[in-house]
Structures are given as structure tokens and as C-alpha cells.
């Protein structure tokens, strides 16, 4: 049965030593910071953690690693300018690292949630990261056999949950959330908002079947959403909308407007 | 490598010049070569600058692998929304027609070949299009791959944007990569300050443009690589 | 480049003899009936069709089969009380049938769209439908290796498209649409509504990158949606809502049942 | 087969009676055995009737594999919306908390073991839980499988709901299925008019309930099957 709890501490209280914990987020977007802090507080150790990175600076996952509570990390991009706690643990041989290309990481968790036994991915073929793995040529293209990554627990952040445990996310904070929710035995979600009643069934991103424990922890996402709601209600563009003269035309119907300029796209 | 327009050159700029291209000129050249209506992912660092030269009329849609199509320019001031970042974790904006999706869907979009072009940086590219851009292979370095290997095979065409020579003067185009590979046979074009090179599984490098270097000089730098002059010069 | 066309005939005009065509829909829900009719009209023959069924009664796919335009059909459930045209063609040896369990059908198209070379599925293991296929035991469970199903074209029905080709669907009419759109080289969509401007980016189900040709063909879905919109605007429950006394309580928080956000979030 | 509550019996009804259960009593029994808060898929036909006995307080959520959680009862009159149908293509209603998703996501939900229970009909079930329910194997018949094979393995527990005997009097529980299989070792319980049987890979059939048949009579019908009396009678 789904449970709604009042504190992050309660939410993570089931997590025991040796558990595999999928932790959502990409950068700060979608990162369940308060749940990670609660996990730190809980004392659970000998964890296997799956996250895109390996902790940054003096917060969250970095502190779990600093305290040597993470025996093994499965991630795509551990090395960052401020990943000093991971770096130290790794060089000391006190943490095991499984490096997985980011798309394979996502797809391997998707496979876990979808009951797929293994799949052939083209990503990484012919590279060091495929060494020792089974390969196969299919229709003239080379693939590497990849296996599911399952979690005992997932810690994710969504924007809102309704009383049925259905979730919606905000913008790129969606990232690993839906995939991890389905890949874990028990999914723990922190949300900015609890909706009384229910989300529109057409707009549910993670159906309640994938959520187990939900705790409301307001974060800055709520402030951003309120600013957006206010702007839309007042007939103004969303705050995050590119200036009109930068907006490119879309399809053949409304062929006006402008271009796209990305910020620096680091492959983190 | 499914480059069907290898000989296309959408700019009117001369194919052979005495001076190497500036970074701006190179970005401009790539932007001009991207077909109207394309879906494009621009990788780490230098490739990002291509977006500055994508004219609105071309209706190019930018993908960011952390789950968005229709990414706009970097956000500033009140535009900044911590839930809206690009793959470099920098706040960006949203363009009309944008859509959000989760990580598995986003990388499925790349792996499935739905993007038209990825533009990536490189340490080295081989004559047959092998790419090395994720690791210098230095012993003791902590490895980190991110989305590099997914991006390498993540579009109908993968373009590399790079300086042709390292600061030490080594050429970054080679018969075979000596750095750890990111992908095998995945690069179809190299856009460099010293020229544009079209690659395929034959290993014969078609030289489309040369800037600040002659064909003979290039061949001297690449004694083991078979070059074909397509500059028309 | 995406094209918006005026007629179903134009929409299907690229489909040539011998093409593999993925046709959406489950029952009448999501069935692109007018596109199928146009395909019939177009004369294209020797087709391979992928659909959940094999045509019913005297309409759509059944007529394509009746006229022997379908050389091969890949489906999960051909035999129905009113599938007489398929039955006749099949017994006459004039159509090839590939029977695929419904979930494998969906996942094999998903694999095509996602660039997966092949995958191990537990479905069908030990059955006639896995005969001749590679099997493997992984972690004590048995799987069958399944390969992608790609289309040259997809014919699907969505509820609405915006000018960027982004799609939304209605209720269970979503079914195979998003999967087929990604699995086909060229995706042709019939929609009830063309939205000027754009769908809310959070609610896009099929991003425009997957759509190629779009044609507006109003159908009964529009009438159902309008009735629903009117009811919600008037504060009444959706017509399709189960009567209150049939509604089970939802979560622990708000056991009242209200559809909160319905429809309110489309930007235009 | 991950049935962890094989001995649970949530009803207070007697486990041994002289008369076979009616279809209604059987549906009621299954409904009573479904744990509160479960996510359940009810197969086409007889299994559908189980929903009539799922009380709202149990908060059971119904899945239909054509892309919905939170399916309500059959729609009538003005409720009918052609875009809202169940796997049997019958118009249904929407309950609060419902959600829609596409076919691949829907079958991923089943294949991934997220549903608690699937209730299915059967032609035959073997002592080790093999299921035959998609084809009678008659020569010349046009095959059709639909979602049967996905449903067979599509939940933590697969329950079969069937008459124990065919109209011709053949028993449908057997040492081995003679009809073409739908799934191997997937059924954990058989709910029949003549009794409830718990299955596992051991092949020893635990007889939880008997109605209108004695243990001795059942054993006589199944000479090759090892039965274990768990009726407590």
C-alpha cells in the first residue's frame, strides 16, 4: 500500500545496509536533496548507489561518499571539478566504480522496469567500456549486450503527486525520475506539491503503481512554478520562455520568429 | 555515417584560403551546412557556438539529452529556472514548440537515429570516422564518459568540430586513433580550422576545404592516410 | 521537413508498392480510418502491414486485405468474428501471417524507434510462437530474443497536433500511436484538431521530431472531447467518469474524487 | 509465481462444500482474496466479473493493457466515449486517479511485474503452473494470441479462473498441458467451481478448497498428479 509520510527521515527509514539505491536528478534538477540528506542521517551503509554523477562539493551524495557509506557507485560522469570526496575515496580504493554511458544507464534501468532480460545497444561498441561484454552484429551494425540495473529503492523528486500517487514533473527535472520509479522495488518520492484529488489522467507521467512512499518537501521548484502560473494567468509569457526575437518558427503553420542558441552543452 | 549530402556546401565562401578559419568562421560554416528543419544536438564547449549562427528561418530544433527538444538560449536573470537546464547543467530557456521527456526516451531518440546532426568536439578522429573524445587514457585519471558515447552514435550524422592540430602541433586526424575510442566509424565530417574532411568506411579522406594549409602539406602530415582532393582548387 | 496537407489522399501519396506500413489503433480507438481508406484508394500494393488485428467487417484494413493489397501482416489477433476477409485470404494462402504477442509487438516497435538491436523478452518463452527463436536463461528466468519491427511508414491517429508537429492523444486511443511514430521512417498523422501555437511542453506525448505529415480530419473524438470540455467548464464530472458510488477511494490523503487539472494546461 | 500468501483465505466461507461454486461465488472468492491496494488485470470474459465484487474500500486499481490504470465499470448511454475502451474493446469508464499510457509502456508495466494479480481464463493448467489458454491447437484454425502470452507472465501472481471440467467432462488441470502453451510455470493459483488449487514448480498441487468433489474423487481424476490436501477438512 502506498504511504504518505510527513518527514524525509520516515520516508527513507526502510533503507537498510547493503541496499541498492537509485538516486534521481541531473545536476540540481530533479535531485531529491532532502531524501539524500535523510539517508545520510539514517546511517545506512554499504550502499550501492546509481546516479548520473558521484556527488558534488559538500552536499548530498558527496557526503554519503565522504563518510564511506557507498561501497559501489554506478554512474556516467563521476569526475567533476568539485567531486573531491569521490576522487579521494576512489584513489584510496574505498569505492567501486562502474562507469556506464549515460544512455545505457537510462536504458538499463528502463529494461529493469520493463521486464527485459537484456538488450543489444550500439552505444559503447568497440570501446573500453564494452570490454568483456558480449557483442553481436545485427543487420550490419554492431551492438553490445547490456543487462538491467534494478534498485531496491529509488529516491526521486517530482513536482506534484496526487492522492493516488500519480506524479508530474517540471521541465528537465523529469530526467531519471520516471525510469528509476519503475526500476526500483520501492520508490520514495519527494514532491513540492500534494494535489488534493487527482492529476489529469492524460498528463500523468509516472502512474501511481510505481510510487510507494511520498513526502512533501517544498523546494525552489514551487517558487518557479508559481511565478510561471502567475505569468500565464496574467497573459504574459512564461519567465523561462526565450525572448520572442529568439524564438524560431515551428511548423509550416506559423512560420514567423527566430533562432536557437544553446548554452554550453557539457556532456555531463 | 549516413551522410547523403557529402558534397553539399551551403555557403558561398571559398573552399581554399590562405588563413585558417577563426572559431567564429568555423561555427558559421557548420551552421550553414545544417539543413533547414533539422533536429540537432550540439555537444560540449565549442560546438555550442554553432547555435549563434543558426538563422531562425532554418527552423532548426535543438535537443538536449537531459530531456528536451526546443531548447532556447542560455537563461539570464529572471529567466533562470533551476528545473530547466541543458546537458552542461547551465540554465537555458524554452522555445515555442518545446517538449520534455525522460532520460530513457531522450536517449532512445538519439540512439534511434532521429536527430539529424550531432556536433561534437574531439581529441582525435580516424580516417574511417572513429572518434576519441572522452578520455585521454592517462594512467590514474578518473574516467568519466557522460553522454559522449551515446552522442557519438546519436544522430544520422555526427560532425566533429575541432582544431586540426593540438597545441603541441600533433595532427588530430589520423589513420587510427591512439586515444581510447568513444565510437567506431561514427564521424561523417570533420570541421576544423584548417579544413573540412568527409569520412567514410573506405578510409579515403575527402578533403572538401583547406584553410591555411595546402593539400601537399596536409598529405605530409598524414603520410599513412589516403587523401582525395575535393576542394576544386 | 514536416508538412501539413489538406487531404488524406495527399497524406498517403508517398506510400509505394512493397512498403511496410505500421497502422495504429486498438479497436476503433486511435484507428486512422480515413488514412487507411486513402491508402486503399491510392492503389499501393504488396504491402506489409503491422496492426494489432487483421481488419474487421467491410472497412479499412479489411478492404485492403480483401483486395489482396497486403502481402504480409504482422499482428497479435487476426481471428475475429468479423475478420472474414482476412480469414479467406489466409486460407487461400494469399496473405502471409506473422503472429506476435501484443506486448512483444509493441516492444519490438519500441526497440526499432529506440535503436535497440534486439532484446530478451520473457513473453512467449516455451510456446509455439518462440519456436526457432534464440532463448537464454538470465538470472534464473527464461527469455526469447526478439528483434525490432520497423516501418517505412506509420499511419496513426492523434487527437491534436500543434504547429511544431507535437501530438497529444485522447484516453486509450493513445495505444500504439507514440510507439509507431518513432518506429517508422515517415509518420503520417490524422488529427481532430490543429492547435495554433503549441501544446504545453509538459503534456506533449509524441514530440514533433517523430511526425512528418499531418492532416486534419475531424472525427467523433472531437465531439467527445467537446462534451468533456463543456462538462468540466460547467463544473460537472466528465461524461466518461464512473458514477460516484462506483468509485473506489484513492489514496490516504483526499479520498474525494475530483479531476483537478483537466484541460486547463494547454497553452492555447 | 511469487505467491507469498498461498495459504491466505480472506473469506470466512467453508473450504469444503457439497456443491460446486456458482460463477458468482467464484468471482466473489477471488475478489475476496485480492489484497487491498492491489493493481489487477482481469482478463476478457469470466475474469471480468471479479470486478463486481471488489469493494471500493479495498482500493483495487484495474489495469487494461490497451493503456490505462484506474479503469471503471462498463460505460452505458451518455458515458460511452469511443476513445475509452478496455482490452475487450468494450466502452468503459474512468475512475479518479486514472492514468493513460501507450502500448509499450502498458506492456512494460505488466512484463516488469508491477501488477499484483492477473486473473485469466484457461483451457488447461498443468501441475507446475503451465498455462494453455490461447489456442486449442485444432489443425486449420487461424491462430490469434492477442495479449494472452503477455498477461500470462504479466503480474506477480497469475490466477486462473475456470470450470474444472470441460463440457465433455475432461478435467482441465493436468500433469502436463496437451494444448499449446501460453506460458510456462506462470500460474500460481487455480480458482475453479470445484476447488482452489495452489501451484508451484514442485508440481505438488496444494488443494485449498473443494466444492462438490471429494479429495479422493479428485485424485481419481488426476492419477498422475500429486495432490496435497490443504482443505483442513
TrEMBL record, chains A, C:
One MF annotation (Gene Ontology) recorded for this entry: CoA-transferase activity
Keyword presence, Transferase: yes
Keyword Transferase (UniProt): yes
Keywords for the protein's UniProt record, in alphabetical order: Transferase
Skewed-composition ranges (Low complexity): 237-268
Region described as Disordered: spans on this chain: 226-268
Family affiliation: Belongs to the 3-oxoacid CoA-transferase subunit A family.
Name under which the protein is recorded: 3-oxoadipate CoA-transferase, alpha subunit
Native organism: Micrococcus terreus
Upper taxonomic lineage: Bacteria, Bacillati, Actinomycetota, Actinomycetes, Micrococcales
TrEMBL record, chains B, D:
InterPro entries: 3-oxoacid_CoA-transf_B, CoA_trans_fam_I, NagB/RpiA_transferase-like
Biased composition (Low complexity): 1-13
GO MF term (any one): CoA-transferase activity
Pfam families to which the protein is assigned, alphabetical: CoA_trans
Family annotation (Gene3D superfamilies): Glutaconate Coenzyme A-transferase (3.40.1080.10)
Keyword set, alphabetical order: Transferase
Annotated region described as Disordered, given as residue ranges: 1-20
Family of the protein in this entry: Belongs to the 3-oxoacid CoA-transferase subunit B family.
Name this polypeptide is given: 3-oxoadipate CoA-transferase, beta subunit
Organism of derivation: Micrococcus terreus
Classification lineage: Bacteria, Bacillati, Actinomycetota, Actinomycetes, Micrococcales
